[in-house]
Amino acid sequence: MASYVILAACSLFLSFSDCARPAQPATDALATAATRAVTASQSAPKPPASPLQMGADQFEKYLPQLRGKRVGLVVNQTSRTGPSHLVDTLVAQGITVKAIFSPEHGFRGEAADGATIKDGKDQRSGLPVRSLYGATKKPTPDMLADLDVLVFDIQDVGTRFYTYISTLHYVMEAAAEQGKTVLVLDRPNPNGRFVDGPVMEPKHKSFVGMHPIPILHGLTVGELAQMINGEKWLAGERQCALTVVPVAGYTHATPYVLPVRPSPNLPTAHSITLYPSICLFEGTDVSVGRGTEAPFEFIGAPTQPRTRPFKFTPRPTSGSPTPPQNGKECYGLDLRQLPTAQSEGLTLRYLIDFYQQSTAKDKFFGKYFEQLTGTATLRQQIIEGRSEKEIRKSWEPALGQYKQMRKKYLLYAEK
């Protein structure tokens, strides 16, 4: 009797129409794949020439584990092997793909942040698309009943509040509970050189922060999966059967520009670099540029001084149909020309400055702020006028302890 598998996949900056190329119709896909298996060589396709080889491109390391299995794919627009989508590649290799599992932003990566993703059917492949960002964020027993392995291959950006790693957690948890195997096809962390920020306090756990890790965790998805398993962070302190296919040729110091955008509002490499610092404004009255041509590169609010050097007005877009401060003129900064050396890592200088300059300090912070920061103290420290240097000192010893724990799970050299 055939066994079945689940895969989660992602990559980065091509157009969405190019990125999301699922497999051929489901009912015909297996028959076509079987025909190919008879008429063509069963050898894996050649990976694209590159100084780095993604986990998904190292076919010889994981295709043997998928043959004869029932496979589900947790994928989106970034799940690519060279010019092809992972779904196409696996079906062409005769792998029995049974279902697609969709994280936040949907299978094609076009849904707005926070938008509910519904179950459906992929028109090209005919495969069922099962949402992990709608009625449930964790695969149910019924979703996994006809599957054997969960394969996860989603491109992350290296921050605690980017929700693909929360989907990873729930996929691993469901696998542990249902006796399934998880296979992670690893990809680089574009912010992987940095380990910084307050470590999340348990009382602030949410879908935008599920683990006691800092804002910049300095791990790839594969390394984080090992940490989740090793530290027994899954419900009931369970551990799942886990295999990671590492990126070949990668170190944490390797520069990496994503070839496909990971989500609608991170359209550029520079926005991804700024994201760890600018995303904290999502818990305030300051717009981060959603509804403009440069999300996470514009920051401003109606409550900032009109003397600020830049102004913009958010308007509805496909990636942000109801942007914060919609239709209101916002005064702030344009960070698009900020040198990379000044935009990397995590800084509080913008957050502190915008609070100090706010004309409505009592309305500056929102309830969401603690979910993003992972701590109740940062808000109070900023209100009290603490310097960034003073605030950083308060992140110890928790940050130092995390750095020591992180060493146990590294798959790649630091330099």
UniProtKB/TrEMBL annotation:
Domain of life: Bacteria
GO MF term set: peptidoglycan beta-N-acetylmuramidase activity
Any Pfam family the entry gives: NamZ_C
Biased composition (Low complexity): 305-320
Signal peptide, first to last residue: 1-20
Region Disordered, residue ranges: 305-328
Alphabetized UniProt keyword annotations: Signal
Cross-referenced Gene3D superfamilies: 3.90.1150.140, Uncharacterised protein PF07075, DUF1343 (3.40.50.12170)
Protein's name in the database: DUF1343 domain-containing protein
Organism: Hymenobacter busanensis
Organism phylogeny: Bacteria, Pseudomonadati, Bacteroidota, Cytophagia, Cytophagales
